[in-house]
Amino acid sequence: MTEPRQSDGRTTLRDVARVAGVSTSTASLVFSGKGPVAGATRERVRAAATDLGYAGPDPLASSLRAGRAGVIGVLVEGRLREAFRDPFAVTVLDGLAAVLDTIPVGMLLLAQDTSDHARAIAQLTTTALDAVVFSLCGPDDNPAVDHLSARGIPMIGTGAPRDPRVTQVLIDERGAIAAATRHLRSLGHERLAMVSMPLSPDRRSGQVSPQRLQGARYADARERVHGFVGVLGASAPVVETPMPGVEEGRLAAGQLLDLPAGVRPTGIVAQSDLLAAGVVRAAEERGLQVPSDLSVTGFDGIDLPWLAHTLTTVDQHGTAKGAALGDLVARALAGEPLADVHLATTLRIGTTSGPPRHP
């Protein structure tokens, strides 16, 4: 006799239980692995499932019963491939994933083009999520916040979007870059410049004016510029790049290093380690020695085994940062109250900073 099935023809857990001669709750325990079931009974249930072509409980139905989707959205600005090219972004995702694995929930990466917010929101609308993490610092304002807030989805960020509905994992951007700047000053450097990450989504390149800084929408880059000029004064040169990559750092540094010898900087503070690596390359292309002709500091603390130097850098401990994001997600899923988390950074002295040969 053919066993009864759902109206849509799919075999159900109840069908499997009838064929195996057990209760539906016992069959459920076999598939969930959450309770003691005799070995013979377990084998009988699995044999019945195989005969009926039953692959297991419907995950959507299970999530509805549990009131959880089992998925955490990770919103990444720009293209996803750009995030995977940034070693620091990968370390943050590693730390986040390690915590999410223990909950356990899955991680869904979602790209958000700043020129087309509607596309990302449309994708969010059709996606069941338990929480959303803004894993990399983006613009101060993000229309996705209103959408997610209306759905009651907890949001965790790393400084952006700057909204009271988003719980943040923060570092002292100003203080950290100021420490790197003071380090070079203490070595005797008087002519210092900065190579900056993008200050706003339009991603310009070139010298940063006071007006450009005032209208900056990326909090991390903006705060690092403020930390730099807070030590040196508003006239200290800052060159903005459209992307925080090695090639962009090389091109930006070229604008500074092609100045006359008595004018060009003897030290450059870069806002990322990849930018700093580009600055080192630009110096070497011009026959300048690092650090005697040019000292360079970075920011992030990533491993660059292909660079023939150990960067002096601000280590913001990416794996720990990702883990802090994951901890906040876990607390949100447990219904606990959330508060911003402040993490420490470390100025790590390497081989790219030293006293200037010609002060």
Question: What does this protein look like?
Answer:
The chain is of the alpha/beta class and 359 residues long. Helices cover 41% and strands 15% of the residues. It has 14 helices and 13 strands. The strands form 2 sheets. A 7-stranded mixed β-sheet has the order 7-8-6-9-10-11-13, sandwiched between helices. Helix 8 links the parallel strand 3 (131-134) and strand 4. It is elongated.
Order of helices and strands: HHHHEHHEHEHEEHEEHHEHEHEEHEE
Tell me the total number of β-strands.
Answer: 13
- What is the percent of helical residues? 40-55%
What is the CATH third-level topology name of the largest domain?
Rossmann fold
User: What does the overall shape look like?
Assistant: elongated
Instruction: State the assembly state of the protein chains.
Output: single chain
* The top level CATH class name of the largest domain: Alpha Beta
State which percent range the strand residues make up: 15-25%
The figure for the number of domains is 3
Sheet with most strands: strand arrangement: 7-8-6-9-10-11-13
Low-confidence stretches: 1-8
Structural class by secondary-structure content: alpha/beta
Write down the Rg.
26 Å
How many DSSP H or I helices? 14
Q: How confident is the prediction overall: mean pLDDT?
A: 89
Main β-sheet description: 7 strands, mixed
Q: What CATH architecture of the largest domain would you give? A: 3-Layer(aba) Sandwich
Amino-to-carboxy terminus distance: 94 Å
Please name the fourth-level CATH homologous superfamily of the largest domain.
Response regulator
